[in-house]
Amino acid sequence: MNLLLIEDNDLDIEIFNLALDQVINDFNIEINITYITSLIQINSFLKDSNAQFDVILSDMNLPGTNGIDVMKKFKQSKFKNIPYVFFTSSLYEKEVEVAYLEGASDYIIKPESFLDNCKLLKKIYDVYEK
Amino acid sequence: MKISKKICLIGDESVGKTSISMRFADDQFSESYKATIGVKLFQRELKIDETSVNMIVWDIQGGKELISSPQQYYRAAHGLIFVCDISNPESIENISFYQNIVKKKYPTTQKILLLNKTDLINFSKQEEQAFERYKESFDLIFKTSAKNDIGITTAFTSLASRFIS
């Protein structure tokens, strides 16, 4: 599975990577991740990249922008058909509603435990791997 | 008058929560199964007397993990719809588990139960047993089939009616 992760928080990226290693080892599956950590990277990625992804996982709180605006950019680009999943530590009802109105596929609250992160990653793999 | 209500679906995986949501909001049904991760949202406006009730349906990932965790998917819900699959005894049994958690966390929220997948033949006995088991603890129980569009709109409309009564 090819996954694009839009996340600016170093600690969250580290936890994600540890969970990723665990899931890849436990289930003998292949998950390739491309990371985007800033608005500048988002803009250049949208302009230059021709990579193929099965799913985009995006934080809601991003420096200099927000997850909804970033998703809108992706939905207006060549990546518009890739499922866009929000992966965030906060849940605000109105924000979730807007996310769906704008085309989000799923909205996930980041799990607190390492084990739950592993379970979630495996679930993402099961649902979105083509 | 126009009001908006958050409705959360509770139940095991693959009992038909997403199919129920899709049938209610879009009048669609899909045979292919895709598990929900986190939450998906659906919406439909119901007209009850002179009131428009905007039913925002939170189709939340099935299973015991999320409802037991401190994550706030169910926060500020106005209605909780419990769903079990009449062909799956464990899903019927687990309604008690969900009820116990919800009773403590959301004591005043409106709650109804859907006995889903009534289109499956040879399970009428389980259907009756489930009905008997939970008739004391739910004010409203509906026998539903998302596949054959049985009971879904009736269930949501009954719940919406409670918000304005």
The amount of helix of chain A comes to: 40-55%
Q: Which two chains touch over the largest interface?
A: A-B, 21 and 19 residues
Structural class of chain B: alpha/beta
Q: Indicate the overall shape of chain A.
A: globular
Strand elements of chain B, count: 6
How much of the sequence lies in strands of chain B comes to 25-35%
- What fold name goes in the CATH topology slot of chain B? Rossmann fold
Distance between the ends of chain A: 7 Å
Kindly report the average pLDDT value of chain B.
92
Largest sheet of chain B: 6 strands, mixed
Can you walk through the features of this model?
The complex is a heterodimer of chains A (130) and B (165). Chain A has 130 residues and is an alpha/beta fold. Chain A has a single domain, classed as Response regulator (Rossmann fold, 3-Layer(aba) Sandwich). In chain A, 47% of the residues lie in helices and 21% in strands. Chain A is built from 5 helices and 7 strands, in the order E-H-E-H-E-E-E-H-E-H-E-H. In chain A, the strands form 2 sheets. A 5-stranded parallel β-sheet of chain A has the order 2-1-3-6-7. Chain A has a two-stranded antiparallel sheet with strand order 4-5. In chain A, helix 1 crosses helix 5. With 165 residues, chain B is of the alpha/beta class. Chain B has a single domain, classed as P-loop containing nucleotide triphosphate hydrolases (Rossmann fold). Helices cover 34% and strands 28% of the residues of chain B. Chain B has helices at 17-26, 64-68, 89-105, 124-134, 152-164; strands spanning 2-10, 39-48, 51-60, 79-85, 110-116, 140-143. In chain B, strands 2-3-1-4-5-6 form a 6-stranded mixed β-sheet, with helices on both faces. At the A-B interface, helix 4, strand 7 and helix 5 of A face strand 2 of B.
